[in-house]
Amino acid sequence: MMETINSSWSEEKIITYFFNYSYTWSEIKLILYLLDFAQKQKIGYVLYQANAMFPSFSFKEGREIGINLNWHNHSSEVPFTIGHEIGHIMSEYRDTKRLNYCRGVGTQITEEMSADIYSLQLLYKYSSAQEDNFYDPLNFIRAYGVPKRMINETYKLFASEEGFFFKPKDSFDQFIIE
C-alpha cells in the first residue's frame, strides 16, 4: 500500500517516494515545482493512490487539493492534474459546489476548462524557466503529459507567446479536434 503524501513531507522524502515508483527525475522536479507553488499560494495537498476510477479533487473553501496518483493509471498526467486542481483553487469562479471532483470533462464545463488552461499555463511557465525551447506544441504536450483535449489551447498558447519558436503558418484551425 502506498503512503499518502501531504504538505508536511520534506522535499527529500517526496523525491525518494517518487523514485521508488519509477518517476523520472524530470517528472519529480516538475511535481516538486507544482507542490512548492501550491504551498506558496497557501494551498494544502494530499497525494494518494486509490482506485483508478476515483478522481482527483479540490476543496476551494479549505484551500486543499487531493491528487489520485493512480487516476486512470496516468502517471504522465500527474503534473497536469496537480496544476488543474490548483487552478480550481485560484479560479475567479465562485464555487457552487463545496468539493470539485474532476471526471475528465475539461472542455465541456467552463470551470473545468478554466482549470485546464491554468494548468497549461503553469506547465508552460515551468518549461520556459527550464529553457525547454519547444518548436512544436505537440512535443510540449508529450513532454509534459498534457491531455489531448488541450491540443487547441496549447497551439493558441504557443501562438500568443514570443518566447517559443512556434509560428503558425496560416491558422491553427487545421488542428481543431472535434
Q: How many domains comprise the coordinates?
A: 1
Gyration radius, to the nearest Å?
A: 16 Å
How much of the polypeptide forms β-strand, as a percent range?
5-15%
Helix coverage percent: 40-55%
Uncertain spans, ≥5 residues at pLDDT below 50?
Answer: 169-174
First-residue to last-residue Cα separation: 40 Å
Strand order of the largest sheet: 1-2-4-3-5
What's the rounded overall pLDDT mean?
83
Name the overall outline: globular
- Secondary-structure element sequence? EHHEEEHEHHH
Protein name: Zn-dependent peptidase ImmA (M78 family)
Organism: Lactobacillus colini
List its salient traits.
178 residues; five-stranded mixed β-sheet; Zn-dependent peptidase ImmA (M78 family); alpha+beta; 5 strands; globular
What does this structure look like?
This is Zn-dependent peptidase ImmA (M78 family). This protein is α+β, with helices and mostly antiparallel strands and 178 residues long. It has one domain (5-175). The protein contains 6 helices and 5 strands; from the N terminus they run βααβββαβααα. The protein has helices at 11-20, 25-40, 78-90, 110-129, 137-144, 151-160, and strands spanning 5-6, 44-48, 57-59, 64-68, 100-101. A hairpin with a 4-residue loop joins strand 3 (57-59) and strand 4. The radius of gyration is 16 Å and the shape is globular.
